[in-house]
Amino acid sequence: MASTATESDQKKKPRPTYTPGPYSAKLTPEDHRELLLQLYLARYFDVRLIKEKKRGRLRGTLYSSHNQEAIIVGSLFGLKPEDWISPIHRDMPAFFMKDLRSGWRNPDRMGMTVQEVCAQVWGRATSPGRARDNWSHIGSKAKHIIHSTSMLAGTIPAACGVVYADRMNGGDAVCLTFNGEGSTAQGVFHEAINFAAVHKLPVVTVIENNQWAYGTPAELEYSLEDFARRADGYGIPGLIADGQNVFDVYDKISEAVEWARAGKGPSIVECKTFRAYGHGDHDDDRAAKYRPADEVEEGRSRDPIAVMKKLMVEFGTLKPDEAKEFMAEGKGASEVTNDDFPPQVVDYLSEGVEFAVNSPEPAAEEGGMWVFKEGH
Amino acid sequence: MAAPAVSTKKNYLTALKEAISEEMGSNPDMLCIGEDIGILGGAFGVTDGLQAKFGAERVIDAPISEAAIVGVACGMCLNGKTVMAEMQFIDFISCGFDQIVNMTATYHYRTAGEVAIPMVIRGPAGGYGGGALYHSQMNEAWFANSPGLKIVCPSTPKDAKGLLKASLRDPNPVIFYEMKELYRQRAIEEDVADGDEALVPLGQAQVRRKGESLTIVTYGNNVYHCLQAAENLDKEGFSAEVVDLRTLVPLDQNTILESVKKTNRLLVVNEAPRTCGFAGEVLARIAEEAFEHLDAPPSRITRLDTPVPWVKPLESFVLPSVEKITEAALRVCRY
Hints:
The complex is a heterodimer. In chain A, a hairpin with a 2-residue loop joins β4 and β5. Chain A has helices at residues 29-54, 69-77, 94-97, 114-121, 156-168, 187-198, 228-232, 246-261, 284-290, 293-300, 304-315, 320-323, 343-357, and strands spanning 84-86, 175-180, 203-209, 212-213, 216-217, 238-242, 267-272. In chain A, α1 runs antiparallel to α11. By secondary structure, chain A is an alpha/beta fold. Chain B folds into 2 domains: 12-198, 3-Layer(aba) Sandwich (Rossmann fold); 206-334, 3-Layer(aba) Sandwich (Rossmann fold), CATH 3.40.50.920. Chain B has 12 helices and 12 strands. In chain B, β8 (214-218), α8 and β9 form a beta-alpha-beta unit. The longest helix of chain B is centred in the first third of the chain and has 15 residues, at 12-26. Chain B is globular and about 60 Å long. Chains A and B meet through α5 and α6 of A and α3, α4 and α5 of B.
């Protein structure tokens, strides 16, 4: 596995505009349709929550994954159910999209239910963490999802430990950690990847390079053109994916996962993307001012849903007429309606929202519980 | 012919070594990780021979990366393992601080009990050896102020072994402070049991010396300073009761209370800095719980609010000593 340049700007064949890699080439038409549905689902989660908050039904800050959904969807699609993941704040849909291939409503699948994730967003007792910490700070030992904190890159060491233990037990699970490019400046990022490299641990570090760390632009975060070169410093492979193209993400992550599962060790996969809105919804208005308008327009111009539909039409797995249905792409939360999404996506998420809204808040005295495991 | 008598007494370091080895032997899901703990056997030799016995997969030589050591250990625990993580000196624990207080200490709380982290972070601690600023610290207050961590500090070989074994069986993260000046102290060698018999439960203080005039609460190195001070007090006609906390979190408040209700006077001694140190916590609790039993203002002897300096006169100036403790105890007794 060698460092590669972005493929989207290479050969200009008339069609298809993306040459499938060895992994995406094996995807069936049904897989294509499932991936597209999942992109809609991730997007709908985002816009639905923003609408719910505007209606006053939701507290807290929302960290939008808008325009970055291909990274979540393409990454998770290549995992086995027993693999581990460690999402961050911008990957909220990942909690219920893990192992979605095993059936959206399959109670045994190795991912959270959409009900659980919505209950967490709403701060209800039915959340997996009983709403003790906010937003993405949930996880599940049973479903192999590491519980994150607010300290970015802080779960990469735990990812190393989880797979080290799994390997000792004879397993071959891979752990996929999601990180923004901002977190790559943390010391623990270096410590953990170095440790993983030394022990050839099956940890894939996904960097969602969306060009902005809250209010700080990329050129003030790092001095590299590509994070693939950062990997050279650890003696591990570094790959670059077009973060707007779900097929490219799937190809690169699958390559890294196969490498890891074969015992060859960790890798870094940089997915180049762009943060469509503010750091969180509290920051949307300011982000519109601190970021140049032309940069934002350019960054939003390749909506992953649109990119995927175009490719599917080229591949012949979506009819041109079908591509004109459900035009969610390119629209902000205030412009989009439920009619812009496939009904199964709206229905699925609505079940989660209704469950959350009707769930109780945790009892006040739970605030004092579970500091220690008792009985010892 | 009878064989020549061989001393069965063990030092503090050997006791620790046995605790780790016994627990590794009885718990196949236990691992050890730290800097130089495998090939070298640890900077002080606490893990000497461990890697040869249990293999490099279970006894891991880590890069100089305290945050990774703690974080990796946390992940292993998340996936069913028990981990002993060594800090080469407890001073270096600051490099892993976030992974301890935010990632590990909170895990059980933030998952509403789904995930317990059975991890012991242990390392050589304390002053009196000329270790200077970064090889002399007692930073237990940082962690006492971070809910979710147990804190242990043994002063004898028996306690070193028994408390370490109990810590390694506890489902919660434990910060374990070893007194490196006691590691090879001949004077405190004693018989130490094997196996389960050696266990000393967490959260129980030990009265090291009975007395009527004054209660001195302490732990670690200072236990011995306080016992010497108690002898000085005898000569002045006062008998001091010395309580060795052994575990700071959870604190055995009852043993302190019972003693203070008997002596009506309290002095607390620790070698951490004064401001927001653990001694202050003990004073506050006793002031709250036993004010009406006190015949004198409760008092404390701690390190000055300074770093620990290197050369002997400087170090002695800032750390608690037998003289300082004796003087303060007399003040409390004569109030």
